[in-house]
What does this fold into?
Amino acid sequence: MATVAVTDATFDEEVRELSDEMAGKVKVAKVDVDANQNAAMSMGVRGIPALFIFKDGEVISNRAGAAPKAALQKWIEDSI
It folds into this structure.
């Protein structure tokens, strides 16, 4: 299996695309952990990007690290 490197800019763009494509199913929010250190600590963020899926205010899934768009979409769809 080949390793795929995802740059920060590519990852941001792919998350925006997924947000648009999955509108009505999910809402995407981005938090600046440098400006919101308390929130990051309370969520247990140890690295970025840190991704969380919430349902009814509760975390139902999380993952760390950038990933290709297809992998993110599968993770989201499998979680919701």
